[in-house]
Design goal:
Largest sheet: 8 strands, mixed
Number of domains: 2
CATH superfamily of the largest domain: F0F1 ATP synthase delta/epsilon subunit, N-terminal
Number of strands: 8
Distance between the termini: 26 Å
Structural class: alpha+beta
Number of helices: 2
Helix content: 25-40%
Shape: elongated
Oligomer: single chain
Bound molecules: adenosine-5'-triphosphate
């Protein structure tokens, strides 16, 4: 069976490179499912979990947004941040979530509000990935 070679790369370096049978991820337009022999594609990804599937297992990676590029069974995910479940510090994510929630409750300007909203999304996404591991 044909497979996909998947690399997840962040500004801090590579997080994962391995072969999988399917990649599911989220773009602004909705869910994307990539199987072998997919047509070439570049799409922006939102703060979400990337799911990497192969016989009997699904690996979830929390990403803080980025891009997916698909070309000739090679999938590259360029992410602002990316963590596998085992690398997620739950306490840190909980604290980030509380901090963001506090900031969202306080009256602030639009920029701070948007920053807090994204921080909250990143924290919830990390906690979700740990929970579903
Ligand atoms: P924090 O406020 O806790 O720094 P953040 O969402 O602002 O969270 P990011 O800017 O998304 O953090 O990420 C900065 C770096 O810290 C990245 O390398 C990311 O992988 C890492 N990181 C952030 N939160 C966690 C976490 N809970 N567990 C493990 N690594 C994390």
């Amino acid at each position: 069976m044909k497979t996909l070679t998947v690399s997840v790369v962040t500004p801090d370096g590579p997080i994962l490179e391995d072969t999988f049978e399917m990649v599911s991820c989220k773009s602004e337009d909705g869910e994307l499912g990539i199987l072998p022999n997919h047509i070439p594609l570049v799409a922006p990804l939102i703060i979400s979990a990337v799911r990497l599937k192969r016989a009997g297992e699904t690996i979830r990676v929390a990403i803080g947004g980025g891009f997916i590029e698909v070309n000739e069974n090679k999938v590259t995910i360029l992410a602002q941040s990316a963590e596998k479940p085992g690398d997620i510090d739950v306490q840190r994510a909980r604290k980030a979530k509380e901090r963001a929630e506090r900031r969202l409750k306080a009256k602030q300007d639009d920029i701070d509000f948007r920053r807090a909203e994204y921080a909250l999304k990143r924290a919830i996404n990390r906690l979700d990935v740990v929970e579903k591991r």
